[in-house]
Amino acid sequence: MRLHTIPTSLLAASVILAAAGCQKAAYVDPKGNDLIVNADRMNVQDWGMLAEQVTQSMMTSGVLERLPNQPAGVLLSPVINTTTQQFDTDGITKKIRIALLNSGRCEVITAAGPGGRAEDKIAQEAKLVKDFQSGKDNQVDMKTVPDVTLTAKLLEDRARSGNTRQVTYILQMTLTNTATGRAVWEGEAQVAKQGERSSVGF
Amino acid sequence: MIRSIPSILLASAALAACNTANTTRPTGNTRADGSVGFEQIVTNGWLNYKANIVSVREAAVSGNLRKVAVEVYSDQLTTQQFSYRFDWQDDGGMPVASPTGALTSVTIKPKETITLTSVGPTPAATKWRLTFLDKQH
């Protein structure tokens, strides 16, 4: 009896070890429908959906083509994240920046920023040297002064009914014309997800 | 046994069809009502019932970007879900990448008509293709 149980337990252990050593991993299409969806947190596909909605709204409004300087210089403020999650909001803003640049209507200013804090310090230094060499270092370069600024806020709303939990992410954006100091476009995008209590971590 | 083989084949074909996509692209013709002609490759009949294209319209936005609006109707008596994605191409048919273009899930109510829209990512994006996928199967 004892002689039989030892090989059986060894066999079971080896099967478990073998199974553990064969963890499956696979590439999935980042734009497909095989991605994991969490009802209690933001996923990468939510960033895309929010960015898609606001950029479509901005392009359709025609505000960018009405700006006097073409392409207009734009400076983006960091997204104010008031959700319960901490994540790099560049995941959303970068998509919006790429969309704006691709449209040909805007150029993002990276070598200048508020208080001299440029996003790209190397570009800022290089530009200073080039301005000095060309004798423009004592002049204000209007190309580094934004024609428009973009501010954004990310909010979250949670609701529950019975076992169903719902979370809604809201992205609000404002485009301000710096020549007038007035908002010329505002947009809002929403993504709502629902899940059962057992599957979410509320 | 002989009778069951065709049944199994039919059932497998039906199940396989559930995971296939339906694709739509414009033909380039403009109709009398201003809508754009389109052609569809329907490989999933069930999906086509709940995401049936009624009309396609195109316009220029922001000066030189193409916008497309597709009206979709559900013939079903219950609320349905499906996913869609717009893919853009240039005049030569080469893909134009979009930073925001991803598969989007939508819910459509019984007998409801909704409008799906997309804006070309660059002025070079002049052609588009709309892919429907079934979220439930």
Would you mind describing this structure in some detail?
The complex is a heterodimer of chains A (202) and B (137). Chain A is α/β, with parallel strands linked by helices and 202 residues long. Chain A has a domain at 30-109 and 146-199: Rossmann fold. Helix content of chain A is 32%, strand content 26%. Chain A is built from four helices and six strands. Chain A has helices spanning 2-20, 44-61, 90-103, 121-133, and strands at residues 72-76, 80-81, 106-108, 148-161, 164-177, 182-196. In chain A, strands 1, 2, 3, 4, 5 and 6 form a six-stranded mixed beta sheet that branches. Chain A starts with a helix and ends in a 6-residue tail after the last strand. By secondary structure, chain B is α+β, with helices and mostly antiparallel strands. Chain B is 15% helix and 48% strand. Chain B is built from two helices and nine strands. In chain B, strands 1, 2, 5, 6, 7 and 9 form a six-stranded antiparallel beta sheet that branches. In chain B, strand 3 and strand 4 form a beta hairpin. Residues 12-16 of chain B have low confidence and may be disordered. The A-B interface holds A 30-33, 45, 48-49, 51-52, 55-56, 59-60, 62, 64-65, 94-96, 98-99, 102-105 and B 61-65, 67, 83, 85, 98-105, 117-119, 121-123, 133, 135.
Give me some keywords for this one.
heterodimer; A: 202 residues; alpha/beta; Rossmann fold; 6-stranded mixed sheet; 26% strand; elongated; B: 137 residues; alpha+beta; Immunoglobulin-like; 6-stranded antiparallel sheet; 3-stranded antiparallel sheet; 2 helices; 9 strands; 15% helix; globular
Gist of the model:
The complex is a heterodimer of chains A (202) and B (137). Chain A has four helices and six strands.
Give the SSE layout.
The complex is a heterodimer of chains A (202) and B (137).
Chain A lengths: L1 H19 L23 H18 L10 E5 L3 E2 L8 H14 L2 E3 L12 H13 L14 E14 L2 E14 L4 E15 L6
Parallel strand pairs in A: 1-3, 1-4, 2-4
Antiparallel strand pairs in A: 4-5, 5-6
Chain B lengths: L3 H15 L3 E9 L5 E6 L3 H6 L1 E10 L3 E9 L6 E10 L5 E2 L7 E5 L4 E7 L7 E8 L3
Antiparallel strand pairs in B: 1-2, 1-9, 3-4, 4-8, 5-6, 5-7, 5-9
